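Q: Could you fold this chain for me?
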Amino acid sequence: MRNRLLVITAVLMLAPSIALAQRPGGAGQGRGQNQAGRPGAGAGTSGGRGTMDQDRTHQRDRLHTMATDQERTQYRTCDQLADHARTQARDMSRSASNKGPNFAEMRQQRDQLREQIRTLQQEHQQMMQGLNDEQRDFVQNRTRTMEQIQSRIETRLQQMEEELGKENPSGKRVSELARQLERETNRWRSEHRHIGEDLGLNT
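A: Sure. Below is the predicted structure, expressed as structure tokens.
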């Protein structure tokens, strides 16, 4: 009799666990379904980013239809001016690195480079002013980057002005500043070209 009571008690104690395990959606199974069925945080973030990318692509396509012939002409003019300034800086760097550089000639080249960059900025400002608000907003990050590059260009030009204003300028220093100007102008031109791609001005 005692043994039967022990067996009955053990069965009653195990019954809830057995029922839970056999029930659909039990504890272990439910956890597996939740993990497999519910989108994780990474999937949600990825989906949101994908939607943003699609929206930006659609906006970019629409902006391409807004591009005018005048904007395309201004874009090409800026690209050509940036290329000329880059080439001028490169030639100046080479001339300054020669043995016994002609600093009078260096000063003329500096004046030409400064004038080219000034004209470039004027043309770029006119192009940006001609864009509508949506176009400007779409490329505002690139525009800010270009402004930072332009600030560095102005600094290098000022440093070159100071060096060539010395009684005994350093050809090596002038050459290095000219190389930096070449690199910065090339970066400016790269951002400008990205703007052309974004707004459909390079077609």
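A (continued): Confidence is low (pLDDT under 50) at residues 5-12, 15-44.
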